[in-house]
Please model this.
Amino acid sequence: MESKKKDIRALTKEQLRAFFVSNGDKAFRGNQVYEWLWSKGAHQFEAMTNISKETRRLLEDAFVINHIRVDQMQRSSDGTIKNAVRLHDGLTVESVLIPTPTRTTACVSSQVGCSLDCKFCATAQLKRMRNLNPDEIYDQVVAIDNESRLYHNRPLSNIVFMGMGEPLMNYNNVLKAIEMITSDEGLGMSPKRIIVSTSGIPKMIKKLADDEVRFGLAVSLHTAINELRAEIMPFSKKFPLEELRESLEYWYAKTGSRITYEYVVWKGINDRKEDIEALVRFCGYVPCKVNLIEYNPIDDGQFQQASSQATDNYVDALEKRGFVVNVRRSRGKDIDAACGQLANKSV
Ligand code: SAH
Model:
């Protein structure tokens, strides 16, 4: 049964300090408890050994410590690990650990399901149930950091918000989670090692720029032609490419950080000459690089990976114009952990 008590990690440090003061204790007690909750990852008040029994009882009566549980862990033949993560209210999300020879990347979810409707994405077929709280995002990162140390003998090095959900539709909680991930009171990771991926919500991209965030931004572009984008990502009708472009120019002017475009080339959909030309033109607007990602089939065949010739045509055209382009191979396909495959299938 869900507890009526408040999740203590929803409190800021200031609020926690104020709680102790209003209960006749020192504000400093708030700092101690905060440290237990975040950098020490305590799941129980009992574990807080430098806090008196009486104070622990006070906390117990007022709060709960919600935390995630990794219900199931699947390991791919390529070293990728997928976690099915159970939340305090019984809902589930997935997160993925992606190892390469030089880094370990955590791919984390920001929402349960997704409210967007990208036709090629498995997560879009789950309706959005709710936003994740900051601690639920943070805990996914901690779980993957632990797995990285255990199975790959090194700490986590990078984080991408490319799991389930649209991070910019859960803006405040994603930013709070990143604040804790990068803070010395949390995991102390560099924001330069974090990328938030969006399907392209112009207003929120501008807000990121105004908030002077220091992490990277990726945009799931997939086509630089409005009519086609409206077909394969229907929500984007509300946000034409001109508006997206303007928000990205604004982002770059404020942050000086170049954008990563994610792009899948599909057979008979965006593999024509005019598709390539449109992307080349779009890349000219804001400093960027392009990741051509492999398609992971999720449906009955409406979308199919284009030929390697089509991908080569993109690479040639982009490189000829001096743009950086990477061709990314999928990881963790055998356990449905690759881009666009996260759909809580195992639970
Ligand atoms: N909503 C955000 C975060 C999800 S990131 C966003 O759209 O950016 C997941 C990435 O995988 C996005 O770039 C998405 O477009 C891509 N993707 C979705 N379905 C895919 C599939 N079946 N195969 C390959 N990539 C896919």
